[in-house]
Amino acid sequence: MKKNKETSTFSETAENNTLEVLEQKPKKKKTKIITIIAVIFIIGLVIFRVVSSMAAPETEKESVVNVKTALAEKMSINTTSPITGRVEPIEEVSIVPLATGKITAVNVDIGDKVAKGTTLFQIDGTQFATTLNKAKEGLNVAKSSYDRISALYKEGAVSYQDYEKAQSTYLNEQQNYTAASDSYSNCTVTSPINGYVTSKNVAVGSIASSAAPAMTVANVSTLQINTNVSEYIVNDLKVGDTVDVYISTLGKDAYKGIIQAISPAPAAGELTYPIKISISDDQGKIKAGMFAEIRIVSEEKKNTLCVPSDSVIMKNGTAVVVTLDKGNVPKYNEVTTGIDNGKYVEILSGIKEGDTIVISGQQYVTEGAPVNITK
Questions:
Q1: What is the pLDDT at residue 239?
Q2: What are the φ and ψ backbone dihedral angles of 28, each rounded to 5 degrees?
Q3: Which whole-number Å values give the CA distances from 260 to 92, 157, 238, 279, in the listed order?
């Protein structure tokens, strides 16, 4: 019995030891997992710090401001006042027939060049010719009677009243003949100027009438612009001044215009002063009716210090130009400006000729912090 009891005690001890071993295995496994996680975290932290240290110089490099530069230099500068107008021929005549009748011939078409006196169209003059012949006969009779009575009056054979009556009749017949001759001549319509036919509203068989123009003839050998200027610039202009004329449909090139006339008073009911500008065009590209812009110089300075307009910025309400010292170190310079035409601005004080100025990126620079100059 004693032996069995000892055996039982041994068995219980072995079983307890086995349970302790089994309980220790999960604890060791858990500790190992925690250790692995800790190692991975440390390695990740090291990698992050290495990458951050490598990226830092790049970030610092990207913080340098890129700028573009130019030189402050002397030049001529002006401001212009733009005005607009339509190109017109120097002469333009509306042909209105003075005779009414059927058109028997049309000798020209739109675009034809005509000289002064060229027959444009013909109106049926049958009735006018009949009237002219009758007037001519009446004139001849009146002249014969007048000549006969005049001779008799000189001899004292007729009274003064008879002489006066014959003279009056003769003068009336002269007027009738002149009127009939003019009416007949009006049947042949001619051009009053040299130029080109720009409109035609008649055809053979139609009826000519003075109610509307039958044709238009324009002299385009010289073109002009009739426009108006304000009181602010009229005193800056004089006859003979040259102006730049731009016609957008013909490109960006400027054509030369010359001021031909300036009105000393505003047009009736207007507040602006009419001016006339002639345009020269050797190539014949400018056509009457085109829209033109005239740029009149309202203020001008020669051999004065200028910088690009974009280089001047406002800082705390003051005009500032950024210059570069020691190659690439920016410096703020308060300046006094003069004429500004949108492209260049005159500098009256604050910088000097030859200074390197920043024309792009100056809004982002810090005074004293080196910049990167780009082309």
A1: 95
A2: -65, -40
A3: 18, 67, 9, 10
* pLDDT for the residue numbered 2: 44
In whole angstroms, give the CA distance from residue 65 to residue 60. Answer: 11
Task: Let me know: does 294 contact 237? Beta carbons within 8 Å.
Answer: no
Do 90 and 221 touch, CB atoms closer than 8 A? yes
Average pLDDT, integer, range 240-253: 90
Q: What is the value of pTM for the model shown? A: 0.58
pLDDT, tens digit (0-9, with 9 covering 90-100), for 26-64: 555 666 677 777 767 777 776 777 666 565 444 444 578
Work out the angle between the directed axes of helices 160-185 and 126-155 (0-180°, nearest 10).
Answer: 160
Give the rounded distance of the alpha carbon of 309 from its chain centre.
Answer: 21
CA gap 163, 181 in Å, rounded: 27
Under a CB-based contact definition with an 8 Å cutoff, are residues 215 and 202 in contact? yes
The DSSP result for 218-267, as a single string, is EEEEEEEEEEEE-TTTGGG--TT-EEEEE-GGG-S-EEEEEEEEE-SSPP
Q: Is residue 169 within 8 Å of 142, Cβ to Cβ? A: yes
At 338-364, the pLDDT tens digits run 999 889 999 999 999 999 999 999 999
Q: CA-CA distance, 124 to 144, in Å (whole number)?
A: 32
Instruction: Quick: pLDDT tens for 265-279.
Output: 998 888 999 999 999
Length of the chain: 375
Find out whether 185 and 161 touch, Cβ atoms under 8 Å.
Answer: no
Q: Do 297 and 79 touch, CB atoms closer than 8 A?
A: yes
Instruction: Tell me the pLDDT band of 170, cut-offs 50, 70 and 90.
Output: very high
**CA 89 – CA 224 distance, rounded (Å):** 6
Which residue is associated with the tokens 């054979």?
Answer: 157
Could you tell me which residues are beta bridge partners of residue 61?
Answer: none
